[in-house]
Amino acid sequence: MNEDTLTRKLRRRWPLIGDDCAVIPARAVDLLFTSDLSIEGVHFARQSSPQEIGYRAAARGLSDVAAMGGVPHYCLVSFALAPWTDQRWIDGFYSGLEKLLRKTKTALAGGDISHAREFLCDVVIWGSVEKGKALLRSGARPGNDIYVSGPLGGWRHKRAIVPRLDLGRKLLGKATSCMDISDGLALDLHRLALASGVEAHLDSVPVLKGATRKQALHDGEDYQLLYTVPPRERVPGIRIGSVVEGQPGRVTLEGKPLPVIGYDHFRQHRS
Amino acid sequence: MNEDTLTRKLRRRWPLIGDDCAVIPARAVDLLFTSDLSIEGVHFARQSSPQEIGYRAAARGLSDVAAMGGVPHYCLVSFALAPWTDQRWIDGFYSGLEKLLRKTKTALAGGDISHAREFLCDVVIWGSVEKGKALLRSGARPGNDIYVSGPLGGWRHKRAIVPRLDLGRKLLGKATSCMDISDGLALDLHRLALASGVEAHLDSVPVLKGATRKQALHDGEDYQLLYTVPPRERVPGIRIGSVVEGQPGRVTLEGKPLPVIGYDHFRQHRS
After folding, report:
1. Nearest CB neighbour to B117, from listed A6, A28, A117
2. Going from the N-terminus, what domains does chain A have, and what CATH number goes with each?
3. Quick check: A27 and B27 CB within 8 A?
4. Could you give the ipTM of this predicted complex?
């Protein structure tokens, strides 16, 4: 079992599951929901500043809303205190988190408090997008160009995540598919290609200064947007390849098959 | 610092925080959101069956929706694998959780997967209630009777939680305030009385067979509803006392002040 087989299994019973956000039709708009865990030792080190940890926890969900072309509105934050988190630390955590919420006009609306051996939190973002317009993973078509919003491989370099909300809005009506890169370009592009029933050919990989090509391909937590666009459409970003009919989910780089590896939480407990 | 001081501090900046669910006005209804963590060693023991743990994780959020008089619609489930959870365990967890979701007509819509040293999950329930009708903690008035939906002290006896959704609906338009008992009657009634600006006088405490009065007063995780009702209103449940003007947040039992203690996650790391 890995994350994708579990998700596929659940999706057979619960069809709303599967994209960066759940898309739920309401009267005037489609509502977007996403939930992201941030766990000590997995998503951040205890030594990071609490402001940074709080900021990053909110950024992950906001990035999912960006990937759907949506606008964020509300946020729930549930967290578990660790034995080493004191009041000052929690205040710092909230100040980083609230800084990004205010910047993105997202209101904190509730949550839960518990405790555990490590500090962890779950951030839920609720947003909306114009009816029927959400950017899904499943819309890539043969002939489309593949883009990323910026160079990759930033995770180990602890770059601040900037949720690409403005870009997501600009892609509405232009991109045929979109997702954010949270588990590495190779694995996430495989997911997008599989959801769309197409094959993806990469010509190049834009690598962040100081990172390696392997990191740009397989590290998680980049939070750049990955999207496909019909050839004559002009969009911001870096063109990295093209969509072909081929074999659903297959990804090649410079003509050679790219192994589908990336961050998988199931794998972490297997070794 | 304890849970309540943190919540109060946050509420000054974010007024939506504070009740069992966040209440967010939409066009035709008010939307309800709640997020509840379930953590190994805090909310359940590893030895419990995965079905029971999954069921209980969903029940906690559904109970919050019940306490607001609402109807649940959608659910997000984020979980962290522990080193000891295998595929069969995760399947059991989902089967318990999905059993209650189907029973309450709640659709699983998404979530997140991660890993941690202990198994944990966060369940988000999204529901709705008739506009302006949500049962809040702040509506108790002097002269009201205080009710609970059943005998208390069940936590240590591992009774299955039954979210009181039908009762919540029956209380709409009748109860002046309502909440579910998750941290013990004494502490939760104190919270309700404080939110309403009133004092609460308990005449009696209905104790579950096999539990002690102390457990009925101070143990968490009962998930019975606690509500206040004008004297001539007929509602299901057990009358346990009355609301008086007095001192906001003060609770007495048979005339004597009741200490405000109950489950507090901040306290767990203090000793």
Report:
1. A117
2. 3-130 (3.30.1330.10), 137-260 (3.90.650.10)
3. yes
4. 0.90
